């Protein structure tokens, strides 16, 4: 009889219905999540096992399980199931109830009907799916514990916005504001700071002008001094016209406009012989490792090489031209 219960438990893990011939079917049903407002308890969605005594036909599922486990044919498996079912019925007649392992308890009613009670705490209980029953503390109790005050909601004026105020937060904010205000009051006056640490707003020549000299006079004196400088002075006077940056030559760098790559030097010479020497007067090849690259021309200036590569790519025969840099 134990082997029948083991088969039912294993099959329920993979199927929603397991029919035991001449006994009934064990069906898995989904139970929706619910909430008890009185107890503040939330129960997540889970499954429970039910029993349907009208499902008594042989669907082959239980027989196939017997065949795989005991390596018997279909007729032998059906015979073994019938033997186990008859033994189960006999135990029910004598004891009136029988525990089906982790599935539940099957009992015999007063009128001979089968009564099944699932065991929610075992095989298919809520905890087995990883979502146990939990208690959610009401918001009113949490507010009392945290010392929060929730302003009453006026349903008549829907344009108002109500904000939850935490008393502890208000106390901390008030203390921080008081500390900042005290720091500002006790801070060092700006006049006591050494003048050497002040940011300079006007030229030092103007800053050290005697008090009788006005700002306009100082600026005028500075302009006159600039205009009366001798021609051979070492002081460079900046002008508003930007000077062009000097060109920097890439010493030791050569830019090749490559038009083809071959494996041997003989292939390179044959390729060059087929080209028009008037169009490519400087055509040649270089060997880099195992590759030989044929170039139309080489330059020491990158921009000149890029111009040639772009013009080669515009033709039909050298669309795959590219630039190789050698140092």
Write the layout of secondary structure elements.
Blueprint: H1 2-12, E1 17-20, E2 24-31, E3 34-36, E4 41-43, E5 46-52, H2 61-70, H3 74-95, E6 97-99, E7 104-108, E8 114-118, E9 134-135, H4 139-146, E10 148-149, E11 165-166, H5 167-185, H6 204-207, H7 215-227, E12 254-262, H8 265-273, E13 284-288, E14 291-299, H9 302-313, E15 322-326
Antiparallel strand pairs: 1-2, 2-5, 3-4, 4-9, 6-7, 7-8, 10-11, 12-14, 12-15, 13-14
Helix pairs in contact: 2-3
Features:
single chain; 327 residues; alpha+beta; Alpha-Beta Plaits; 3-stranded antiparallel sheet; 15 strands
Give a nutshell description of this structure.
With 327 residues, the chain is an alpha+beta fold. It contains 9 helices and 15 strands.
Please tell me about this protein's structure:
This protein has 327 residues and is an alpha+beta fold. Among the domains are: 2-129, no CATH class; 254-326, 2-Layer Sandwich (Alpha-Beta Plaits), CATH 3.30.70. It is built from nine helices and 15 strands. The protein has helices at 2-12, 61-70, 74-95, 139-146, 167-185, 204-207, 215-227, 265-273, 302-313; strands spanning 17-20, 24-31, 34-36, 41-43, 46-52, 97-99, 104-108, 114-118, 134-135, 148-149, 165-166, 254-262, 284-288, 291-299, 322-326. The strands form five sheets. It has a four-stranded antiparallel beta sheet. The longest helix has 22 residues, at 74-95. The chain is flat. Mean pLDDT is 75; it is low at 192-215 and 231-242.
